[in-house]
Amino acid sequence: MSFAQSVSLFCSEINNRRFNDEILQILKSLMVGKDVKSLMELQSSLREFMRSQSISVLREITEKTVDQKLWVLEFFVRAFALIGDMESCLALKYEALLLREIKSSSCQRLQVSYIEWLNFAEQLIQNGFYSTARQACENAMLCLQKDDVAISRKIDKRILRLEDHAVQFAGSGSEKFSQHSALLFDPTRTIPLDAGCRQ
Is the pLDDT at 195 greater than 60, yes or no? Predict the structure, then answer.
């Protein structure tokens, strides 16, 4: 199969709403063996296509089950990571964590651990999303308190250090946002992913 055919196949599968490991393997193969210019052009094209598709898909899956939604979100998280679009990758990872947090009261297996929030906060800081990183740190602390886990001095310091770092950079005006990720990071967004959610 030629390179052009592989690109066409990948886009066709996304348009047909097929989200599985085979499709990710096609995407992964597209990212290999390209010169810098060709790779950047491909990433730009796929980023625009996948951002548009992700917004459409989020609107389409509002009536799906929690597990179905999380499956789709995980697919896009992995796809955006392969494309090199960390902004969209983290935005959708945040969606998945929030969805799990919202639904964990009725399904304990969905509960987000404090270490998941902490690791996510570190990723956010590394990529310039400081306000959201601060919220992730607060969520990590809430998880510890809710589960009545003894907070070690080491864990406490790690959370506070990350939160202080996030606050410092958020106040400096160095926050990185595009209209696309702001739509997802904004809790007032008009894409109610948890609406009509079934277990």
Answer: no
